[in-house]
């Protein structure tokens, strides 16, 4: 209730009090003061207002999800420095496409794949109208690069000139080779069984493999695969490889045995041929009489050669 609405009840109460009490002077003064008090709509500070405890519909500051701003647009301008993972542009649809050293998310957000400077450009060689966003390592570079220009990659490393190691001589100062290669066993040795031995520098004239080559000879157990189907596939492949290796070894053994038998047969045939030639020569010498006409004394036949 406003104070203007209380003016008349207060005046009536004061007049009643004036008639009933013995202090008429004080009551008349109160009536004069209330009569002079003019409270209207223009005097809001004196009037006072009543506010609703619950706001009406549409008055709340909190909006629903359909009106929350999406905050789309460019987050980095041209020639701005970005690091890997920084968002460059947020969009709905493909107004801009990912170019050099940039990627595009599933909500069409373009982000940097490497640290560098942002470049907005067009590439008519790819598409006549599309716009691209790329990242370059040198701020002075311009995109797109030339069609056959060498691409640049940044591996967070410092460029250091690599010194070419001096060529190692084949022979040492003592005249023996610095490197000796030992092949594997069999007719077709596997490259995995090749051993490279190097001459020691301590003057012991001993050969030894390098440490990193010795480390490669250690066979470690492989990590178990998570998929049973993939594990069975690798097992079948490994079994097939072992079977092929065993078959190659068996064929190699059979071939070596065949070579040995062929060598023995060739040696036997060569001995028989030499024996027959010797016998034929002896028979020819025996059939020709000597110049004096006397027959040579009979000689026992030579012993038979055992093969």
TrEMBL record:
Species of origin: Anthostomella pinea
Family, similarity comment: Belongs to the bacterial ribosomal protein bL27 family.
Transmembrane regions: none
Compartment(s) where it occurs, according to its Swiss-Prot or TrEMBL record: Mitochondrion
GO molecular function: structural constituent of ribosome
InterPro entries (alphabetical): Ribosomal_bL27 (IPR001684)
Family annotation (PANTHER family): LARGE RIBOSOMAL SUBUNIT PROTEIN BL27M (PTHR15893:SF0), RIBOSOMAL PROTEIN L27 (PTHR15893)
Renumbered residue ranges of the record's region Disordered: 278-307
Keyword Ribosomal protein carried by entry: yes
Protein name stated in the entry: Large ribosomal subunit protein bL27m
Keyword annotations: Mitochondrion, Ribonucleoprotein, Ribosomal protein
């Amino acid at each position: 209730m406003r104070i203007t609405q209380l003016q008349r009840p207060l005046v009536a109460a004061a007049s009643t009090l004036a008639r009933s009490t013995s202090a008429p002077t004080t009551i008349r003064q109160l009536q004069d003061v209330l009569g002079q008090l003019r409270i209207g709509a223009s005097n809001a500070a004196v009037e006072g207002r009543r506010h609703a405890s619950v706001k009406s519909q549409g008055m709340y500051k909190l909006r629903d999800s359909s009106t929350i701003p999406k905050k789309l647009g460019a987050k980095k301008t041209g020639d701005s420095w970005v690091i890997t993972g920084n968002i460059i542009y947020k969009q709905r649809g493909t107004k801009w496409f990912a170019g050099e050293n940039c990627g595009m998310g599933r909500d069409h957000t373009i982000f940097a794949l490497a640290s560098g400077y942002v470049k907005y450009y067009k590439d008519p060689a790819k598409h006549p109208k599309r716009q691209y966003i790329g990242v370059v390592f040198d701020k002075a570079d311009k995109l797109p690069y030339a069609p056959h220009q060498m691409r640049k990659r940044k591996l967070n490393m410092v460029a250091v000139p690599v010194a070419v190691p001096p060529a190692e001589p084949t022979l040492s100062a003592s005249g023996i080779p610095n490197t000796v290669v030992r092949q594997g066993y069999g007719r077709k040795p596997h490259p995995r069984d090749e051993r490279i031995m190097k001459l020691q520098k301590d003057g012991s004239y001993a050969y030894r493999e390098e440490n990193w080559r010795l480390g490669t000879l250690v066979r470690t157990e492989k990590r178990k695969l998570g998929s049973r189907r993939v594990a069975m596939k690798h097992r079948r492949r490994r079994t097939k490889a072992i079977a092929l290796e065993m078959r190659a070894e068996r064929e190699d053994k059979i071939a070596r045995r065949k070579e040995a038998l062929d060598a023995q047969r060739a040696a036997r045939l060569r001995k028989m041929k030499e024996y027959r030639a010797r016998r034929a020569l002896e028979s020819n010498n025996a059939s020709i009489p000597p110049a004096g006409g006397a027959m040579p004394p009979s000689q026992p036949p030579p012993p038979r050669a055992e093969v």
